[in-house]
Structure formats: C-alpha cells, structure tokens
Write a structure and sequence with these properties.
15 strands, about 40% helix, binds cobalt (II) ion, Rossmann fold, seven-stranded parallel β-sheet, 2 domains, 13 helices, 2,3-Dihydroxybiphenyl 1,2-Dioxygenase, domain 1, eight-stranded mixed β-sheet, about 20% strand, alpha/beta, about 400 residues
Length: about 400
C-alpha cells in the first residue's frame, strides 16, 4: 500500500493523528488527490457554519454546541479559520489549547490559516471538511473569522449557516455585513443577557426582511448566552428543525452536491437580492503593449482603426491610446514605469488583453452594491481613468479570471 493509502486507512479507523496528517496533506495542496480517494464516503455529516463579527462569541458558542451534540453522543469535528495563522504553523497553539481542554474522543479540532485563500475560506477548508466527513464525524462545525469580504463564502461550505450577532458592538447589526443577512439559516443573538439584546433582535428581523424576501418570517432568531447556557436548548431544536426542513424539501441534496463538487451557492443567493446595477455595454478592451506606436500600426494599417489620441494616466503609470471600434474601443496601454501594473502584467504574461471594461450608469451605486455583496475589489473608491472616466477594478478572483473595469462616463 502507498503511504497515502495507509494514512487514509488509519484515518478512517478514527486515528486522530492520521486525520490530522491527512488534513495537513490537504493544506499542502493534495486536496483533490485525497478527496478522490475518499469518494463514496462523503456527504453524511451535518455541516454547520458559524459566522458573525469578531467579538460575537463564535468560539464560546462552538464549544457550547460541541457539549450539546456530545450529550446526544454525536461526534463533532471543528474547523476553525484563523486569520493570524500562516497556512499551517500558527494555528497549532489554538489546537493545543482546545485539545487540552477537551480530550474527548468524539471531538476533533483543527484551526486553519486563510493565507492564499479567496476571502476567509480556502480550498483547504473544503478538503478538511471532506476528510472529517469521510472519517465519520456526525457534525462538522466551521467557525469563521468574521472579517473579510469572503465571509459569505461560508455558504458554499456549510449545509446550514448560523449568523451570530451580539449587543454592544457599536453600531449593532451594522457590524454584520449585509451579505451575511442574506445567507443565514439561523440568526443567533449571543450574550442576550446584556442590555440592548432585544434591539439587536428587532434590527436583525428588519435587516433579514429586506434581504430574505417573503420567507423572512420563517427564519429563526434565537436569543442565547453561550457562556451561561441560556437558550442553547432552543438553538439545538432550531438546528434540528432546519435540517429537518432541508431534508423534507430535498434542498439538503442540492446544498451537499454543490458543497462536494466545489460549486457555489453564492451566485444563486446573490441573484435573490436582485442586482440594481446597470451595465450598459462593453466600453473598451485594455491591451497591454510594449510600445504604442508599434502596436498602433497593426490596428491602423491592418484593421483601419484610427487612434483618437494619446493620454498619460500618471496614477496608473501608463500611456493610453484609444482606438474606437463601433460602441467599444481598444485601449492600448504602454507602461511608463517598470513597476507599473501594465509593466508587471507584461513581465508575467507577455503582451495581451489585460482588462475588459464595462460601462455602468452609476459607478457609486455599482460600487456600493458590489461592497454589499462582498465582492472582492481592487478599488475601494472610484478613481479617474483615461478620458476623465470614473473607474473601479474588480479583482479577477471574483470574476473567474478577468480583470474587470467598471467605468462611468458623463
Ligand atoms: Co481601462
């Protein structure tokens, strides 16, 4: 038997060291190989994602839930996302603290870093969940960091998403990003023995009603105190209830299929909130070239497209030549500095299409909507591009690999 097969056999027997090593393999990049070998053993665990702002008490709630599930003799695997941890190393301390405080055979705890991941969750997270699922853990809890634009991504990893709120975090539910209001299956007001808890619940209900549509009244908001145990029995009932409904409706199959295939519920979910953004048409295609005059020869002499002038955009360290073609145009880009984005692009990929731009009617509204949906951006505020357009760039990680510019021209 190969070493990996031995490791898998041992992990499937419940050996925690082996499980841990297997997850490390996944973190080091062997995710698909490991998952392929575990196929057929996946899709049985109930995967619960816990998210919410920092300070909401996610770890305390996770620990409380572990005890509850253990009382029912269900085994629990925990994957905690730790932003301070580099891919493997730094998470060890967290593991040790938790493992020492809980030597229970039926609990497995693992922290993971977020480095290299899109937002707060990574490919490795999916791999770790699958390993724990295959190894027979009844319940898997994913605890997220509560920061970063990718937080809503939890929806692609969990069967049930629990969003935590807490009184006293300044602007109350402002601390919960709107995107999270759309994805919660259960909302939990933790530390509900503190003043202001009722108001948080009311604000949550209002927030959910805006984002969840007609179904909002059915979405539970549970008041608990993870520390004193108050309300936790209700929360457990609520979790059981949601899983029952998901089973009855068959929705659980869809969620699991997407989770296992690496698919995304995010797109489906985002559509629910209906886009208000108005994309008018393609505006231009940005082509990184080494020399504008040389490049223009092809466009002008061969395609017969006349340039409308050359402009320097200092902030972008680039000289731009526009070559209009119908409603759209080529934007030839020559770097004016070896450390500019276009120079770096050419160094990495050679000359070629560097970005694509879409014209929107209102860049500020577009930006607000993108932020609300937690889309990864390069620009947090609009800046001025060539021709006086106000532009922002969306990160290629959010667009399946296209550096996408949105521009507004008046
Ligand atoms: Co452009």
């Amino acid at each position: 038997m190969e070493e990996l097969d031995l490791l898998i056999a041992s992990a499937l027997e419940g050996n925690k060291r082996a499980i841990s090593k297997l997850i490390s393999r996944v973190e080091q990049g062997s995710s698909s190989e490991v998952i392929r070998k575990l196929a057929g053993k996946l899709g049985k665990a109930k995967v619960i994602g816990i998210t919410g702002p920092p300070g909401a008490g996610k770890s305390t709630l996770t620990n409380a839930l572990i005890s509850l599930f253990r009382q029912r003799r269900e085994t629990v695997g925990v994957v905690a996302i730790d932003p301070t941890s580099p891919f493997t190393g730094g998470a060890i301390l967290g593991d040790r603290v938790r493992l020492n405080s809980d030597p229970d055979e039926g609990v497995f705890f693992r922290s993971m870093g977020t480095r290299g991941a899109y937002g707060g969750l990574s490919v490795a997270t999916r791999g770790a969940i699958n390993v724990l699922d295959a190894c027979g853990y009844d319940v898997i809890i994913i605890e997220t960091v509560g920061v970063g634009q990718g937080e809503v991504e939890i929806i692609n990893h969990a069967d049930l998403v629990m969003v935590l709120a807490v009184p006293g975090l300044g602007d109350d539910i402002q601390a919960i990003k709107a995107g999270l209001l759309e994805i919660g299956d259960i909302f939990v007001v933790n530390k509900s023995d503190l003043p202001g808890a009722d108001r948080v619940a009311v604000e949550l209900r209002a927030g959910i009603s805006l984002s969840a549509g007609e179904k909002y009244e059915q979405i539970p908001i549970i008041m608990v105190s993870a520390e004193t145990g108050m309300g936790l029995d209700k929360l457990l009932d609520s979790i059981d209830n949601v899983f029952e409904k998901l089973n009855d409706s068959g929705e659980i199959l869809l969620r699991r299929a997407l989770r296992l295939s690496g698919g995304s519920r995010l797109g489906l979910q985002v559509n629910k909130g209906e886009s208000k953004m108005k994309c008018l048409h393609f505006d231009h295609i940005g082509v990184a070239v080494k020399n504008l005059e040389d490049a223009a020869k092809f466009y002008e002499a061969v395609l017969g497209i006349k340039p409308t002038g050359i402009e320097e955009v200092e902030e972008q360290k680039v000289k731009v030549m526009f070559m209009p073609c119908g409603d759209c145009e080529f934007e030839l880009l020559e770097s004016t500095s070896p450390d500019g984005p276009v120079a770096r692009f050419i160094e990495k990929y050679g000359e070629g299409v560097q970005h694509i731009a879409i014209r929107v009617d209102d860049i500020d509204a577009a930006l607000a909507e993108l932020k609300e949906k937690g889309i990864r951006l390069i620009d947090e505020t609009p800046r001025y591009g060539a021709g006086g357009a106000r532009i922002i760039f969306i990160h290629p990680k959010a667009t399946n690999g296209v550096l996408l510019e949105l521009c507004e021209r008046k």
